[in-house]
Structure to design on (208 residues):
């Protein structure tokens, strides 16, 4: 998996290690995750483009940033498109047939918004790689402890989370805030049972 040190990635990794579906779990990233397990192998890489994946069956990608954090649109795209595709391609070459990825609510390659347009373009590119299973989850604003990960609180996300809680009875389910644990649970569970390409919206994850 890639993105194991992020908010959703940490929760996904915890679920993978808590179960017995996998005899080994490989993580690739610039930093090692906090979790420790005899089955966990960490591959540190400064560039995802140069990553050569070990033989794997399933791939989980939870990479993601914001334009503000990345510093520019180009830097944002380098993570949310280029890095995501690089990990997926490397894993496909290594034999993986199943891919689960965290995208974003509103992802659309024709969107007027740069953020959701890049997310949509990444989804379309992933769909062309030949995975027999592709599960895409599209969460709304994420709720979780970023401070424990050493991440700064995202001001816009904090405001959106507050409004979402205040107006939960009015805002459509797809656009209400959702916990990182709910997203992780959905991704892992869907990967275990799905065949073909499936998109799971935030409102569906809320109902689990």
């Amino acid at each position: 998996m890639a993105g194991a040190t992020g908010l959703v990635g940490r929760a996904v990794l915890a679920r993978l290690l808590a179960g017995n579906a996998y005899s080994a779990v490989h993580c690739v990233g610039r930093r090692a995750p906090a979790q420790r397990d005899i089955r966990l192998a960490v591959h540190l890489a400064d560039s995802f483009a140069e990553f050569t994946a070990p033989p794997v069956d399933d791939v989980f990608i939870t990479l993601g940033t914001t334009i503000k954090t990345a510093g520019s649109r180009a830097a944002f795209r380098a993570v949310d498109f280029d890095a995501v595709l690089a990990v997926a391609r490397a894993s496909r070459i290594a034999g993986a047939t199943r891919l689960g990825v965290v995208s974003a609510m509103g992802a659309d390659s024709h969107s007027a918004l740069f953020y959701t347009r890049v997310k949509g373009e990444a989804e379309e590119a992933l769909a062309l790689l030949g995975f027999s299973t592709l599960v895409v989850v599209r969460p709304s604003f994420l709720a979780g402890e970023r401070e424990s990960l050493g991440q700064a609180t995202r001001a816009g996300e904090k405001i959106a989370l507050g409004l979402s809680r205040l107006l939960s009875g009015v805002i459509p389910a797809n656009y209400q805030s959702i916990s990182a644990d709910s997203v992780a649970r959905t991704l892992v569970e869907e990967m275990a049972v799905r065949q073909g390409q499936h998109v799971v919206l935030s409102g569906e994850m809320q109902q689990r």
About this structure: The radius of gyration is 16 Å. Residues 73-93 form the longest helix (21 residues). Residues 55-206 form a domain with the Rossmann fold fold (CATH 3.40.50.720). The chain has one domain: 55-206.
